[in-house]
Specification:
alpha+beta, Uridine Diphospho-n-acetylenolpyruvylglucosamine Reductase, domain 3, 17 helices, 34% helix, binds flavin-adenine dinucleotide
Length: 475
């Protein structure tokens, strides 16, 4: 039995239309979980507004009725942020999926205005259609949406060149927790008219308001692109190769590092994906160089860089993608890894970042600390080494259940997080806090920073109904 009177739902159904106010358990079930299968509670309803005015009115009525609001996009978030929680006020999931219009694309401005429910890949396609590039790229781009991308300030493979999602945003349209619409879809690069409010909502994981649309930057398309799959003897060698790549003459648009076990996992669970080199090296790198003009000799630059690296002992083998199909196949290895790692069994995972120069030290210290406490586990490590963001995990031995591994090695994440922080890094590089990193937030975030965040939250959301229980640890 729902604790709400029929009038509450009738009123919400009036706003979004009865077919977009989902109430039955079967309709609601998909929205009660996410890609990670994070478990919360089923929301009391799922609302699927069609436009900003509907979002604003729905938020107003939810707040009047004391309902919490959990904004949701593609539900590919890895921190459990888009799932309603037990213990708080009853919640509706506000899915932005029907707000999927590209409002404008301007090739001369190098800008695009997209609604929050646009799938990231559709924004990439809209940019390509006007001969521009929307440069953000990661494995879940075919499902993740612009609102979720900005709610988490997603990073991905090309952060090394174009930054996190935040760095692409020119302006935002946001429905505040009181239902007012903050309309700041300015498409200008320069605007110093006071506080940059948009940055408050980016990475706030829906705790300060609902992003309904964003004006974002596009960049010139890369017309000469070369991708290499490289065997390297160590993370130190990989970093020397990164320095070399930075001076190769073209843009370094990706630089990914993977421990061999990660590629063995891909080979085991994704036999359709061919690993381009024998799995004999302890570490591998995927590096992409690119330039916006086809005449730039990126191939020659890549070859020179790799042969100098070989001579210097920074790599032991390398293969270049020969065509677009091969290039895409190389990236599938990296992008599909999270799915295969899920199949490979339980692991305690992390999302850390350290200064790029500290990556080798970080990996050394983490491996030693994990092996000392949990010798039966195996360290996995894959990540965006070019920006210092390594996804390090402790994989359970074969046959151990998730529950048993969490009971045994659940503290492994904090061991790794503490090492990252001690090296001047972060325990949450790109996935956000959601609920899964609240304990790290409590233990490792500067208490003053948390106090300031709580003050902002109180100011914007005095009733605490915007995605409660996420990001900020309980007082
Ligand atoms: C296979 C795989 C690979 C991934 N690789 C990467 C990677 O390389 N880099 C990376 O950064 N992430 C990665 N992710 C994580 C995930 O894809 C990103 O966090 C993504 O940005 C989430 O988008 P979404 O639409 O699925 O958001 P959701 O999961 O629906 O929501 C995420 C958070 O944003 C909030 N939110 C959603 N919509 C709005 C809105 N309109 N307004 C305000 N808040 C909102 C939600 O409440 C929630 O807190 C990966 C995920 C998967 C499954």
């Amino acid at each position: 039995m729902s604790p709400f009177d029929a009038g509450t739902f009738a009123s919400l159904a009036d706003v979004v239309g009865p077919r977009n106010c989902l109430r039955t358990p079967e309709d609601i079930a998909p929205y009660a979980t996410d890609w990670r299968r994070a478990v919360g509670v089923a929301p009391v309803a799922v609302l699927r507004p069609a436009d900003t005015a509907q979002v604003a009115e729905a938020v107003r009525r939810c707040v009047q009725g004391g309902l919490a609001i959990v904004p949701a996009g593609g539900r590919t978030g890895l921190a459990g942020g888009a799932v309603a929680l037990a213990g708080g006020p009853p919640a509706v999931v506000l899915s932005l999926e029907r707000m999927n219009r590209i409002r404008s694309v301007d090739a001369r401005d190098f800008s695009i205005v997209a609604e929050a429910g646009c799938v990231v890949q559709s924004v990439q396609a809209a940019a390509i259609a006007v001969d521009r590039l929307f440069p953000i790229m990661w494995g879940a781009q075919g499902s993740a949406m612009i609102g979720g991308m900005l709610g988490t300030n997603a990073g991905g493979i090309r952060t090394i060149r174009w930054g996190n999602a935040r760095e692409l945003v020119l302006g935002l349209e946001v429905v505040l927790p009181d239902g007012r619409v903050l309309d700041d879809l300015r498409r200008v690069r320069k605007d110093n008219s006071g506080y940059a409010l948009r940055h408050l909502f980016i990475g706030a994981e829906g705790t300060l308001g609902v992003i309904t649309a964003a004006a974002m930057r596009l960049v010139p398309p890369m017309r000469a692109v070369e991708t290499a799959f490289v065997a390297v003897p160590s993370p130190d060698a990989a970093l020397s190769l990164l320095s070399r790549a930075m001076g190769a003459g073209a843009e370094v648009v990706a630089f990914e590092l993977a421990k061999r076990i990660c590629l063995e996992t891909v080979a085991r669970y994704g036999p359709q994906l061919r690993i381009p080199l024998p799995l004999e090296s302890p570490w591998y790198v995927m590096v992409e160089l690119a330039a916006p003009h086809a005449a730039v000799p990126v191939r020659a630059m890549m070859e020179a860089m790799l042969s100098e690296g070989l001579e210097a002992g920074e790599l032991t083998d390398a293969v270049l993608a020969e065509n677009e199909g091969q290039r895409a196949a190389f990236w599938r290895i990296r992008e599909d890894y999270p799915e295969f790692s899920r199949m490979a069994g339980p692991a305690i995972s992390t999302d850390t970042a350290v200064p790029v120069s500290a990556v080798p030290e970080f990996l050394r210290r983490a491996e030693a600390a994990l092996a000392a406490r949990w010798p039966e586990g195996e360290m996995v490590a894959i990540g965006h080494a070019g920006d210092g963001n390594i996804h390090l995990g402790l994989k359970a031995p074969e046959g151990v259940t998730r529950e048993a591994w969490v009971a045994r090695a659940g503290e492994a994440d904090m061991v790794v997080n503490e090492i990252a922080v001690s090296l001047g890094g972060s325990f949450s590089a790109e996935h956000g806090i959601g609920v899964s990193k609240l304990h790290a937030m409590q233990a490792l975030k500067d208490p003053l920073a948390i106090e300031v965040m709580r003050g902002l939250k109180r100011t914007l959301d005095p009733r605490g109904l915007m995605n409660p229980g996420k990001v900020l640890p309980a007082n």
